[in-house]
Amino acid sequence: MKKKLLSLAAAVSVGMVANLAGAAELTAVSFGGAYGAAQQKHMIDPYMEKTGNKVLFENYSGGVAELKAQVESGNVLWDVVDMEVIDLERACSEGLLEVFPQDQLPPGDDGTPAAEDFSKEALANECGVGNIVWTVLYAYNHDTIQGGEPKSMIDFFDTKTFPGKRALRKRPQVNLEWALLADGVPKDQIYDMLETEEGQARAFAKLDTIKDDIVWFDSWSQAPQLLNDGGAVMVQSANGRFFAAITQENKPFEMVWDGHVFDLDVWAVVKGAKNKETAIDFVKFATGSKPLSGMPEVAYAPTRKSSAAYIDASVLPKLPSAHLDEGLKASSLFWADYGESLSEKFNEWLLK
Amino acid sequence: MSNPELTPDEIKQADHNRRRSKLLATLFVIPLLLFIFVTFVAPIGTMLYRSFYHPTVYELIPNTLDALDDWSEDGGELPPNPTLNTFAVELKSLFEERLSGKLAEEINRALPGSSSLIKSTARQVSRADTAELEISGAALLFDTNSKWQQIELWQAIKKAGSVFTADYYLTALDLERDPSGEIVQRGTQIYLDLYWKSLKIAFYITLLTALIGFPLAWYLANAPTRVANTLMIFVLLPFWTSLLVRTTSWIALLQTNGVVNSTLQSLHIISEPLEMMYTQFATVIAMTHILLPFMILPLYSVMKGIDPSYFRAALSLGAKPIPAFIRIYLPMTVPGFSAGALLVFIISIGYYITPALVGGTEGQMISNLIAFHMQSSNNWELAAALGSLLLLLITLLYWLYDRLVGISNLKLG
Amino acid sequence: MVQFPRYFTIWQKLGLSGVKLTAWLVLLFLMAPILVIIPLSFNAEPYFTFTEGMLAFEPEAYSLKWYQEILADDKWLLAIKNSFYIGIMATIIATVLGTTAAIGLTRADMPFQRMIMALLLSPMIVPVIITAAGMFFFYSQLDIAGSYIGVILAHAALGTPFVVITVNAALAGFDYSLVRASLGMGAKPVYTFFKVIMPLIRPGVISGALFAFVTSFDEVIVVLFLAGPEQRTIPRQMFSGLREEINPTILAVATLLVILSGLLLFTMEYLRARSEKMRSATV
Fold it and tell me: Residues 104..163 of B with a Cβ closer than 8 Å to C: which?
């Protein structure tokens, strides 16, 4: 009896290991939420269908930390990752990513060679392939806002006129830019100013004025929930998250475009990825004209010109590309150089 | 030992038997000891080692650091040109291997702001010939950026390059070395405050569990057996329920639109929702709930063993109930209290999950910062130093527990 | 109930009733948070709170869709599979090693008994964040981070103290002369173990195994540090769910887990009753 049980347990366990180990051929990681759902629908699922490869699609909340931990400990779990360009620059220079063979990217569906089809920024870094243009802005909820309708970055920092909590993502990126914008620094001087001690102190001083009213969150997908359940009256997030909440769930949210900080998202292959070839193959597929054209569904602009053929023109004004003059381009060089020291300062400031 | 009635042979035999039985007992324990050693002790040892052993920079630029050994950082002079040439050569090869970013980050930790300098210089020197750099690398460095002529930068490189360092412990204690090597307080104080806060939170939780655990334990110990056994289920069910489930419950209860707020609002007790989530209050209340059984169970088992006749005797001898309770009953519950309190305190001080989910920034404890440095800032050495200090604290408490309660008296459920 | 002695004054009676009331309130505090999530998991809307329809008991305010969502989601299914697989494997290792060690440890002539006991129980005392950080460094070097083996070994290490404690307690009244008698009569040691020792300590072994299983089943931090996407477990999935998107799927999982812990508790109490019976029979 006992022997039988034991051999049964052994058989079951061996079977499970074999079964579980054989399951995933590629681990792709992105930001989840509405954006993740769109990627699942337009990139992951069609890819699995076309190639028969199995893709394990995971969420993370951005940043280079997890990537760095994997590469430096020699315990690489991810194959391909969607990241912000401000992180890409740093990850690439620290050797956390494979150099991507950009010359192998297929031409657009209309025949335009990849090098011309992609926008310049999309292929600017040798470690990644641009995927979408997106932006970070804030939104308010018509049901909970008091004191009128906020219009600008100054209003975001004005807790007298617009009382209530503000929700920001817990990191220095974008928040320091917003603080200086609200403090009256012109857009083109923001990053020069942030390079100086005085500029950094000024940004933190501005954040200090609303520190008690800030709710911090860790991941973009928490943001719509906070705005919905009254956790905060003005919430920072990626424009696509709000867009999805407004269009798909009919939430009474309003986006404020003033001072939005826009950037690209890229697909990149992790250094030492266990399935490197499949990963490259996946990125080539996912950045094709057709998969990219699904991204405006969550209000992100595709990086290939040839995707336009598949996109409904009525959606164009909703994309960040229609609001570029109100916004600020995130500086990846600045954050590659100052990201770490400012994160440290930011965390010290948080705990003060 | 020297029993006169035993023959030498018998003594020998007895000794042999004792040795055999000792050996046998040891043989039974050895597999687990080995297992624990490999899977648990060795990992913690690796972590302790990491808190002062940091060879990364030395592995990146060994020749430069060897050359810098002969340079006196207090002399007020730059390192000699051959050293700088060596550095330029090494920087070029780092750039080619995509490791210059790593060096930049490491040096940046010692001297904030040098990251961009190193990265841009690496790009510049990579265009030059190695043979050329060997001769005139220094000049090229100075041409690229005048910051290379600052002594602080070379001091920072030398400092970051030391393989064994106590600096992470200094940081973990909010201290640092000033340029002259004196140990001074850091500009911002974080970690000591956080240790203090963790101790305070653990103390509040211990106190709360004791205060609310006592009446329940007393009631259970004095109720009829059938009632007590039934009610015990209400203590044990939470005990057996997943920690994540209990934390989830508290999120459902405490969030802005949660059960507590909507109940209070519909009863018109409050008009605006209370801010309870992401506060220290949330951490304390949720952890009190989670750890309460650890207090109730030892208290209950001690109270169960207290003979009620002592208390009755005191009363019948004319003592007033309350003083009699304080002088007679309470002292007899002390073993239960000390067992419960130490256990609750030890568990709560290193808690991670609940503060991470309900505590926001305000309710964070030291474990959360260790996790932060492990996962977000990738400052593993600092995480290891913070962890070592926490381990020291826990070891002290554990020793105390063993002294006062005895670990072999630890009972479960 | 406690009877009030006749000589108690009205204030003392009130005081005593106050203590009883407090005790009941504390019981409420213990149970209410766990019970409250059960109805919430049937919420038809994606919120963590009671809707007006739910309070009015309108049938359409309730739904099973979050339970269906678990069954439809590959990630949850993988997590459930992983949790049981890792939990069972870790339990087997912890139980075998822990039981053997406890038998050795209760021998009076075990050298350094106290020190060894302290060491063997330390995985339970050291904050898991420290253990997890150390394992991350060490297991990465051994190349078993991000694998089932790594997580199983880690969970087994965390589970062993519980087995040692419970088996230790079960052996407390054990008379080793029984073993000598059995061996003296020519029984093989293995036979002696299964026929003489095991029946007496079985409740202790099983409850230790249950503790070890729950330890693994409930563990997040080691999984967070050590496991790859393929080794996601239920608590890990809940943790990221709570940090990222809060939706009632988590409440549905939580409800299932409450039921599971109820079953475990029942088994545990049954075992305890049996072992008490057995103890009174042997003494």
Answer: none
Q: In percent, how much of chain A has pLDDT > 70?
A: 93
User: What are the phi and psi torsion angles at C205 (to 5°)?
Assistant: -65, -45
**Average pLDDT, whole number, for chain A?**
88
Residue A122: CATH number of its domain: 3.40.190.10
Give the tokens for residue A163: 């009382």
Query: Do A29 and A114 sit in the same domain of this protein?
Result: yes
Residue-wise pLDDT tens digits, C7-66: 667 777 787 888 899 999 999 999 999 999 999 999 887 777 777 788 888 888 899 999
**CB within 8 Å: A95 and B372:** no
For residue C109, give the 3-state DSSP assignment.
Answer: coil
Q: Are strands A166-169 and A214-217 parallel, antiparallel or unpaired?
A: parallel
Q: How many domains does chain C have?
A: 1
Check residue C283 and give its pLDDT: 45
Rg of the Cα atoms in chain A: 22
pLDDT band at B8 (very low <50, low <70, confident <90, very high): confident
A313: containing domain: 2-134+264-326
Q: How confident is the model at residue A318 (pLDDT cuts 50, 70, 90)?
A: confident
Residue from A135, A265, A229, A239 nearest B277 by CA = A229
Q: How far is CA A37 from CA A58, B146, B167, in A?
A: 11, 50, 45
Q: Please check whether residue C53 lies inside any domain of the structure.
A: no
Judge whether B215 is closer than 8 Å to chain C, CB to CB: yes
Residues A100 and A146 occupy one common structural domain:
no
Strands A80-84 and A55-59, how do they pair? unpaired
pLDDT at A49: 93
For residues C281 and B107, the model is more confident at: B107
Interface predicted TM-score of the whole assembly (ipTM), two decimals: 0.90
Domain that holds residue C163: 66-282
Interface of C with B in 129-158 (CB under 8 A): 129-131, 133-139, 141, 153-154, 156-157
Q: A16 and A39 share a domain?
A: yes
Coil vs helix vs strand at C193 = helix
CA distance B112 to chain A (A): 6
pLDDT value for C6: 65
Classify strands A55-59 and A26-30 as parallel, antiparallel or unpaired: parallel
Please list, residue by residue across B112-127, b when 16 or more beta carbons sit within 10 angstroms of its beta carbon and e when fewer do. bbbbbbbbebbebbee
- A interface test, pick of B105, B121, B376 with most A CB neighbours within 10 Å: B376
pTM of the full structure: 0.87
Q: Same domain for A105 and A183?
A: no
Closest to B138 (Cα-Cα) out of B120, B125, B151: B125
Q: Scanning every residue of chain B, which has its alpha carbon at the shortest distance from the alpha carbon of A96?
A: B98
Cβ neighbours of A337 in B, within 8 Å: 115-116, 119
CA-CA-CA-CA dihedral for A162, A163, A164, A167, to nearest 10: 40
pLDDT tens for B189-217 read 788 989 999 999 999 999 999 999 999 99
Residues A234 and A307 in one domain: no
Pair A105, A146 in one domain: no
In a domain, C31, yes or no: no
- Whether residue A249 sits in one domain with residue A209: yes
Provide the number of CB pairs (under 8 Å) joining chain A to chain B.
Answer: 80
Amino acid C33: pLDDT: 93
CATH number, position C268: 1.10.3720.10
Distance in Å, alpha carbon of C137 to nearest chain A alpha carbon = 7
Domain annotation covers residue C5 = no
Tell which phi-psi region holds residue A135, choosing left (phi > 0), alpha (psi between -120 and 50) or beta. Answer: beta
Q: How many Å lie between the alpha carbon of A65 and the closest alpha carbon of chain B?
A: 5
Query: Which residues does chain C have with pLDDT short of 70?
Result: 1-8, 108, 245, 278-283
pLDDT, tens digit, for every residue of A45-55? 999 999 989 89
Q: Please tell me whether residues A89 and A169 are part of one structural domain.
A: no
